[in-house]
Design goal:
By secondary structure, the protein is mostly helical. It is built from 8 helices and no strands.
């Protein structure tokens, strides 16, 4: 390979050297952001259930599944970029936040659940950006658990399973949403406590 080819910014290829702004992990994050308004539109259109509600659920599942994909590609192929560090959390919070807000607008989820989660997610994301010049704050095990619980809880809230399987599904969803709410708040507080300890040290 020529020296010119060797220096060509990488989009997917593993290795060292410059990484393209339009690398595949970044493009996946951008796709997740683009899907947010599409998801919101389909969900609102399918508020009464039916095929559009299932379509909105499928869109959410596909979009949220790309979160682990872009992160895995970026880390395993050395494609981590500053832009990716910004895009990834924005994409995640935009998707889950939009889902929670619309569910509350449709009166399917109490606002007292949605608002604290949004405050926590936006607050921690802004704080991460604020300290980015000093250090990268990785997702903790609790943070990863939070993401999984939120994904499951929102999926259960979106899918019209009760119409097919009965009201007991609502109880299952309530349990997952409660767990997601608690873990979201607790991990947010823990991030701040750990940061304060680190600053003291």
């Amino acid at each position: 390979m020529s020296s010119t080819g060797a220096m060509k910014p990488r989009m997917l290829r593993a290795g060292d050297g410059p990484v393209s702004t339009w690398s595949v992990p970044n493009l996946i994050s951008i796709l997740r952001i683009v899907l947010v308004p599409v998801f919101v539109g389909v969900l609102l259109a399918g508020a009464d259930g039916g095929a559009l509600r299932w379509a909105a659920t499928a869109l959410f599942v596909v979009a949220i599944s790309t979160d682990s994909l872009d992160g895995h590609l970026a880390r395993s192929r050395n494609l981590v970029t500053d832009l990716g560090k910004i895009l990834d959390p924005i994409a995640d919070k935009a998707l889950t936040g939009a889902a929670l807000v619309v569910l509350s607008v449709l009166a399917e989820l109490p606002w007292w659940v949605t608002i604290p989660i949004l405050v926590r997610e936006v607050g921690i994301t802004v704080w991460r950006f604020a300290v980015l010049s000093k250090r990268v704050v990785p997702a903790s095990k609790g943070g990863k658990t939070k993401t999984v619980l939120q994904s499951i809880a929102i999926t259960l809230a979106l899918a019209p399973f009760p119409a097919l399987l009965g009201g007991w599904v609502d109880w299952v969803n309530t349990l997952f949403m409660a767990a997601a709410f608690v873990v979201t708040i607790v991990t947010g507080v823990q991030y701040l406590i750990d940061d304060r300890r680190l600053n003291r040290a």
